[in-house]
Amino acid sequence: MMSGPSSLRSMASCWTSLTQSLKVPTLLKPTLLPTTFTRNFIVAPKREKRRIKIHPPIKGPPKNPLQALTTQALQTLDPNGTRQKMFSRHNKDSIRPGDIVQVRRRNGDPFSGVLLNIRRRGVDSAFLLRDHLTRVGVEMWFKLYSPAIEDIDLVQRKAKRARRAKLYYMRQPKHDFGSVANVVKEYTRRVRPTQRQRK
Amino acid sequence: MPPKISIWRHLKIGSFFDFISPIKINNASQFSSSSRAAFGGVKMKRVSSSTSPTLLAASKAAALERRRVPQRVGTLAVKKEMTAVYLPNGQRIPCTILQLDRVQVVAPKTKKEHGYWACQVGLGWKAPKNITKPMLGHYEKFGVAPKKTIKEFRVKDENGILAPGTIINADHFVEGQYVDIWATCKGKGFAGGMKRHGWAGQPASHGNSLTHRAMGSAGQSQGGGSRVYPGKRMAGRMGGHSKTIQHRQVLKVDQELGVVLINGPIPGPKGGIVSIQDTIHRPSPVVPEPHIVVSM
């Protein structure tokens, strides 16, 4: 490739088959003097490459903000950590799928049923209860940390630990638990009066 | 008393006679039917040649004036995840976490030089080896580290321009304020009419054979010209384009985590780049403290 002043380019290109080196013409402009003639083209003196300055990045925010936000929110929603403990995987006595659970709500009647599913999503965690009302299967999702839930009670444990996390097979007539009303009534008679006195 | 003539009245009404008012009418040609002669042989100009500051409604400058542009610059953010926030009354509000990852103003754009006021804003960081030399020179010029993405945000005037290198953090936004959001929605590939346009399809049974999700008729027969009209909705590429959501509330701002919680879902995948700016539907929010931090 050519490199050098364009005014001399045509002159250089006609000297393609030259074998001897050219002498620098004396009539050359003073500004072009630093250029040197070699075989058949002009080479400009090597210039130092300008390095582009790259600025260092600024410090970024933490990569996983959700975890921090969750702990922050749970400090107000679940200050004692009771509900976290109640559904914790690390707690031996936690509520597990298959257990019968009663949820008392701030507004509205309590609802109880068999726990089919625990959806673990931090602040947005929820669980699914199934019961029968007027012989019709009813399922309800509850948000674990919702302020609308006053209390969550474990009514009865499943006799044998369920071997899967989602007990959707319990919707089939063959496996359906049916109404939990009797179990809950028994529980209320046995346990709740003492709780009421304490309150 | 002469009637008050405001520039806005002229801009909004835009009636034909607004053009006449700033220009002197020659008596001789007052009743001429030719539009040019009606203006006294004067060629109509976009901006009045008289001393009146009235901007003609049909001009480009007037259109620019009319355009609703936020006062403050917007920011880029990364869509993180969805979660929920509980109000004191127990109401649950689903929201999206947006994180402002090393958002900095890269370059200002001025009306004099570029024809409009805007700020080029960059997010994240990108290894310099993956950036072209012209762009590296651009970042060098404004003293900013190479960015993963850059985007321009229009602002109303020079008051909205921030200095290059200014860090835009989560406290740029105020809890409770409303924002407009742009993001690229998830691409669904080549989708049929039912998915793309919400058509009903055909019945599953009653003698139906092999046409359950077809688009049905594309138009009339001979009465409609025996052709399919342009713009007929059909199967095709769905999603993967930009979506704008207007007037969404900011539920929470966390300066330390660089996080803004926005009410409701936001288009695009997790990790997608989202643009947020003050909504054009409300006046600019009052920021309690100056947030300006210039790096270096």
UniProtKB/TrEMBL annotation, chain A:
Family matches, as PANTHER family: LARGE RIBOSOMAL SUBUNIT PROTEIN BL19M, RIBOSOMAL PROTEIN L19
Report whether Transit peptide shows up as a keyword of the record. no
What name does this protein carry? Ribosomal protein L19
Q: Name one Pfam family in it.
A: Ribosomal_L19
UniProt keyword annotations, A-Z = Ribonucleoprotein, Ribosomal protein
Organism whose genome encodes this protein: Morchella conica CCBAS932
* A GO CC annotation given for this chain: mitochondrial large ribosomal subunit
GO MF terms listed in the record are: structural constituent of ribosome
Please report which protein family the annotation says this sequence is part of: Belongs to the bacterial ribosomal protein bL19 family.
GO annotation (BP), single? translation
Q: What is the lineage of its organism?
A: Eukaryota, Fungi, Dikarya, Ascomycota, Pezizomycotina
Automatic annotation (TrEMBL), chain B:
* GO CC, alphabetical: mitochondrial large ribosomal subunit
Read off the InterPro entries from this record. Ribosomal_uL3 (IPR000597), Ribosomal_uL3_bac/org-type (IPR019927), Transl_B-barrel_sf (IPR009000)
Classification via Pfam families: Ribosomal_L3
Molecular function terms from GO? structural constituent of ribosome
Please provide the record's keywords in A-Z order: Ribonucleoprotein, Ribosomal protein
Q: Would you kindly state one Gene Ontology biological process term found in this protein's UniProt entry?
A: translation
Which domain of life does the protein's organism represent? Eukaryota
Keyword presence, Ribonucleoprotein: yes
Q: Which family does it belong to?
A: Belongs to the universal ribosomal protein uL3 family.
Q: What is this protein called?
A: Large ribosomal subunit protein uL3m
Q: What is the species listed in this Swiss-Prot or TrEMBL entry?
A: Morchella conica CCBAS932
